[in-house]
Amino acid sequence: MNLTTKDKVKSLLINYPHLRDSDERLIATYWMKEAGSKDALDNMSATKFLLNFVEGAYTSPESIRRMRQKIQEQDESLRGKSYQKRQKLEQDVRSKIRSL
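-> structure tokens emitted (100 positions)
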């Protein structure tokens, strides 16, 4: 069964909560899975990785980021801690503005 980008990103967000707040970590983990394993990446030269990337062997980082954004928009339980902090800060700022 071929999983879609959405399925893969959602699985990563569910299984690795620390990825919810970092697109860079999410993308790196996604690519590691696409490469086959951490060992596969460890044994690959940077040149080979870049050649594979430009040839389309890895999902574009923008596609992964956009999918993460869409998933988190639809499923609040998959949002990260920074989202919760921003929401709290927003509420505090709104309260201060109302009290002016």
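The radius of gyration is 17 Å.
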